[in-house]
């Protein structure tokens, strides 16, 4: 058995010690068989969460390790303009970003990947992992930010946060190489000058900047908390606003990072557009180290069943209170 914890061990210990103590306390002080069973069930749920966070694996299978010491940072623009419909005809720009991220990850076997998005704030959607399937799921779930709550965006919004991540990754594993891949449209709507991307250059050995959209611009579907709507984002005149692709800002960012810039207009081969750093390689068709079979999903199923029982009990108690009222 081996472990690949989703959080640092100290964080797992601190967070789950508090949760477990609370669940045990509730179980101990509960009176009545049903109450004690509820308390015991919650203790088991917390223990399952601990086990899932530890990410246990059993057995081994041979896996390719072409790029075994590479960390890839995907930095994705999910501002409202990502919904502009001027990629590959009339597709949304975000569709192109999704396609390219998946293609790159599939071509860099053995690397670790992290997914960072930015709009009004930065968000780490996927921490560094070799689990390409988890990355693909997170990419599929990406949506543009709600335009109603957008206060203008700067294409340099993620620079400080990603610089910190890169520096931490370098300090933690100095022998690994890193590359950053920035995907966006270059449109600066914040009322300020674009900041520099140069801080990334000190921490990466490769990567790329990819641009999406057209100079003519595209209308943006409106997204809310539930996803895409049938409406378009409207401008001051009450007609659909246009988001225009700005390659100049993206070229400048690429030059500051020291990586190539490419305008992506349709799905297709993408690895050739990357500046790939030198990494340890098993060679074409080579086989790297052993990779254990993931087992946390079995624990997640058990946790889901207990959570379903808990929700059913909550609904039943709520219905009883309603009838009594």
- Tell me the CATH superfamily of the largest domain: von Willebrand factor, type A domain
Q: From the alpha-carbon coordinates, what is the Rg to the nearest angstrom? A: 23 Å
Helix content, binned percent: 25-40%
Instruction: Give, in order, the helices and strands.
Output: EHHEEHEEHHEHEEEEEHEEH
Structural class: alpha/beta
Beta percentage is 15-25%
- Describe the strand arrangement of the main beta sheet, using strand numbers: 5-4-3-6-7-12
Coarse shape = globular
- The name of the CATH topology of the largest domain is Rossmann fold
CATH class type of the largest domain: Alpha Beta
Average pLDDT taken over every residue = 84
**Would you report the number of β strands?**
13
Total of helices: 8
Question: Could you explain how this protein is built, in words?
Answer:
Strand 6 (177-184), helix 6 and strand 7 (206-211) form a beta-alpha-beta unit. Residues 61-66 and 282-291 have low confidence and may be disordered. The chain is built from 8 helices and 13 strands. With 325 residues, it is α/β, with parallel strands linked by helices. It has 2 domains: 2-60 and 290-324, no CATH class; 70-273, von Willebrand factor, type A domain (Rossmann fold, 3-Layer(aba) Sandwich). The strands form 4 sheets. Strands 5-4-3-6-7-12 form a 6-stranded mixed β-sheet, with helices on both faces. A 3-stranded antiparallel β-sheet has the order 1-2-13.
